[in-house]
Amino acid sequence: MEEYIEDVIRLTDLSQNKPLNQIVFEGLRLAIIKGIIPVGERINEKEYALRMNISRTPIREALRRIEDEGLVEYIPNYGTVVKKVTVADAKEIYDIREALEIMATTNAMNIMATEEFDELEALLAKTEKANNEDDIDLVIQCFSEFNSLIYHFSRMPRLESIVKKLKDYVARFRDISLADYPRREEALLEHYYILNSMKKKDYEQVALTVREHLRRSERFVVEELERRESAADSEKADLDETPL
């Protein structure tokens, strides 16, 4: 636990101007989704409460909410343990994203002002420059900002609110996908295609380009998750065969 608990505490910034229960929930949830707390690890309420200098109640309430999302499970007579983010999880998130992003993008294109299209164009130019300089963190940040702007320009605040609940999953999958240079190149072209289709106000083309972009990303992420699961299974099998 010592190896990662300080990272968890940093994510759970108690100085935020939010209710304590919400801060603890968001911090633990993000730590699990990002893989900071290892899969299979038991979350010791007492230890976390002690290290954060808070009572066990907000920890317990946060874990109940996180369990509702399927990220942890309670094992009787043992405690709450972290479950892995699976291929099925990724496919579900991408299916949800596809529906929401097509809705947001097609709505945005019909009401955006010229300067808002220019803002997206400038952001893609910044992304391209960062990619040419192999600045992966900035590329990821720019793609995230591009998506956030489209949701904002759609003028659909309830849709934005729904998307925010998925942002931690999306960030993890984006990190996996964009770590690969060829995939970053493809993703950049796909974003240009999306923007050009929006400028033409071509609903069918926008829906197609958004769908294809997300499906390519999904295929890459699923393949990587399957590779990691296979590697973990092989490692476990090797350990099981190691004589005591």
TrEMBL record:
Return the InterPro entries for the record: GntR_C (IPR011711), TF_FadR/GntR_C (IPR008920), Tscrpt_reg_HTH_GntR (IPR000524), WH-like_DNA-bd_sf (IPR036388), WH_DNA-bd_sf (IPR036390)
Instruction: Give the molecular function GO annotations.
Output: DNA binding; DNA-binding transcription factor activity
According to the lineage, what is the superkingdom?
Bacteria
Alphabetized UniProt keyword annotations: DNA-binding, Transcription, Transcription regulation
Sequence segments annotated as region (Disordered)? 225-244
| This protein's record includes keyword ATP-binding | no
Tell me where in this chain the HTH gntR-type domain is found: 18-85
- This chain's protein is named Transcription regulator hth gntr
The organism is Trichococcus palustris
